[in-house]
TrEMBL record:
Domain of life: Bacteria
DUF1858 domain residues: 2-54
Gene3D superfamilies with a match to the protein in the record: SP0561-like (1.10.3910.10)
NCBIfam families per record: prismane_assoc (TIGR03980)
Pfam families membership: DUF1858 (PF08984)
InterPro entries: CHP03980_redox-disulphide, DUF1858, ScdA-like_N_sf
Official protein name in the record: DUF1858 domain-containing protein
Biological source species: Candidatus Fimisoma avicola
Lineage, broadest ranks: Bacteria, Bacillati, Bacillota, Clostridia, Eubacteriales
Length: 66
């Protein structure tokens, strides 16, 4: 399960399939130097993104529900 405490790079390192979810939210995290230390919560807050929706989408992808 993907949680708000995980860093962006942790999620991206799990599987490249998550990159398309970040792109959906216009987060080009793969090349961002902040991805190493920034949690999903910090990324959502910093970019004005609904954290609950981002987590739902990432976890749906994790369960292959897309």
């Amino acid at each position: 399960m993907i949680t708000k405490e995980m860093t962006v790079s942790e999620v991206l390192s799990m599987d490249e399939k998550y990159e398309k979810i970040f792109e959906k939210y216009f987060l080009t995290c793969a090349g961002c130097p902040g991805a190493e230390n920034e949690t999903l919560m910090q990324a959502a807050e910093g970019h004005g993104i609904d954290l609950a929706q981002l987590l739902e989408d990432l976890n749906r992808e994790d369960r292959n529900e897309f």
